[in-house]
Amino acid sequence: MELNQIRYFLNLADTLNFTEAAMRSGVSQPTLTRAIQRLEQELGGTLVYRDGKDSRLTALGRDIQSEFAEIADREQRVRAISLNRVRGRREALTLGVVNTIAPALITGFVTHALRQMPMLELVLQPISRDEGMERLLSGQIDGCFCTDPTAGNAKIATVEMFRERLLLAMAQGHSLASQGSVSLVELSEQPYLDRLQCEFRTRVNDHLRNRAIIMIPRLRSEREDLIQQAVAEGAGVCMLPERSAIVEGLTLRPVDTLDLSRTVAFQSISGSGTAAALRQLRVLIERYVWC
């Protein structure tokens, strides 16, 4: 049994698609298929059911997936420690982070990634939602944590991390905090604070305007911390993605008829020609439990 076979199997288990697994592994599809077949022969059982275009793991495949994942992780750590200790080599990646994504959502993963990749050095840069793709394609950044990623570009690999709803944020002692949801009429009666970087602003304003509600903000700012702190201190309410609170003292509630959400994802240049550290980081993102 070879480590390459284990990596190929893990990529196949993640994608359940031989073509995609081969691309992720940096080999041809026939090479990956033969490696999986040899692995099945060595283990004495079928690992993957092949049903036309559909594939799924067998019971044996599911049983060994976690064991193989541990082996692959340990092998990567051994290589990383060797590079770091023996050669004194570190690999640096520059990642953009859209500034409306709460830092706790990213730093938890970053801490995990730095433990798993001892040779890794990360540079995190704040970016706006609109500039991420341009900076990625121009090579200014190696990857980016973004919101509602643009699809359809074959050069870009996208890993969807989680979705989060848009809710109404208010102070914990607010009169509406005890309710399960807030009506549009109740919203219209509140002092409104405007997050200028919010991706939902246009859609929220259009939704309210179509119902003859015009919110005139009492405070506007691009500073997430400033707006949220003002809300927590009772200056008014604001719209906020449900996992994006960065200050204490906030309560979030849904607004009736306002059903908006966003996808938070990681994007990077696709293909086996990208840096090994970036490919490994992408796998860690795929396997990380974000919820």
UniProtKB/TrEMBL annotation:
A GO molecular-function descriptor: DNA-binding transcription factor activity
Domain of life: Bacteria
Positions of transmembrane segments: 92-114
UniProt keyword terms in alphabetical order: DNA-binding, Membrane, Transcription, Transcription regulation, Transmembrane, Transmembrane helix
Entry GO terms, CC: protein-DNA complex
Stored InterPro entries: LysR_HTH_N, LysR_subst-bd, WH-like_DNA-bd_sf, WH_DNA-bd_sf
Pfam family membership, one: LysR_substrate
HTH lysR-type domain sequence ranges: 1-58
Cross-referenced CDD domains: PBP2_LTTR_substrate
Entry similarity comment: Belongs to the LysR transcriptional regulatory family.
Protein name: LysR family transcriptional regulator
